[in-house]
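Priority: low. Protein: N-acetylneuraminic acid mutarotase. Input follows.
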Amino acid sequence: MTTVGLAVGVGLATGCNAAEWPDLPVGLKNGITTKVGDVVYAGLGSAGTAFYALDLGNKGAGWQELAGFPGPAPSGAAFASSGDKIYVFSGSGKANEEAASPIIFEAVHAFDTAEGTWQKMETTTPAGLLGATALTLSDGRIAITGGYNKQLFDTYLADVLGTDKEAEPEKWQKIVDDYMGMAPEAYRWNTKVLVFDPQTVTWGDMGETPYLPNTGAAAIPLEGERFLLVNGEIKPGLRTPQVKEIDLSGKTAVWREVAQVPTPLGEDLQEGLAGAYAGYTEGGPVVAGGANFKGARANAYAGQWFAHNGLAKRWVPQIFGRIHNGWVEIGSLGEGFAYGGAVDVDGGLLLVGGEDSSRTARPDVRLLKWDGSRVSIEP
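Result:
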């Protein structure tokens, strides 16, 4: 655990700031949130095909609804902006209203922020990219790490949702136990650093990760073509506490493990975080919120690969800041949140939407500020 001399204060801003950040028109979780120029874009996921924009130069006008997503609504899609376009890769959902179970999509869509229109690209993803992390490079290409295996995911959901739990409880339970009880490697998640070139609409790769691939990892850009990937899942229900740095400046990705986010105060183990908010503040990089299962890592160490079986999912409130290449707990969101979006804006990190401990998609928009000594959250 990193030890840093730090005077920490946490406050919730009130008064004139209370109306500064308008909430979304709907709750949003497992969607997309990004910024192009001075406009923040958010939607999809629990918002369905709805897509919204907030002009940072005219926040008083609130979120404006844009053209809706043209395909089946994706949840957990990988996404990134490049130039004046926003690219959405894969995700999961039902192919149509009559579908019995969700699938992982293979489509790629682009939203043109200048024209306000969507376009389905003439390509498909080389792998299932549900829960993957997309990283925009300086030349406009988009690198993507992690992502579920489409065949295994689609088959599992078709089997489990196609079995009547009440009429055939043993068959249903065996389907769940067999899938959830596999070791991480058996899920065959995407191990490559895929690279999409928007100019040529072609795919390449920059080699494979030397670690277990993740879904739901939080990404923070560093200088040059370096990024931090914070935690994420290594299989359904089991997170990793690892923090990796990936350098994408060459033809092949260079990976290294760096300091972990510390164990929260009062706990014995850092379970790892999935769906955390992450980005930059005045005081440096921060990671906030996320979700995990307390006790899952201990079960995995004991060889119980259905590691979250019988455990309660929890949404954590802690905020961690990075100082001198290490992390320290600096404050709290006030309540647990996960699976929302975060973008860097003037003054701090804008937290958009998220899921609370009742699994409700929230419309909340707040500004997380940290100057290196004091944390505040402006509604």
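The longest helix spans residues 150-161. The chain has a mean pLDDT of 94.
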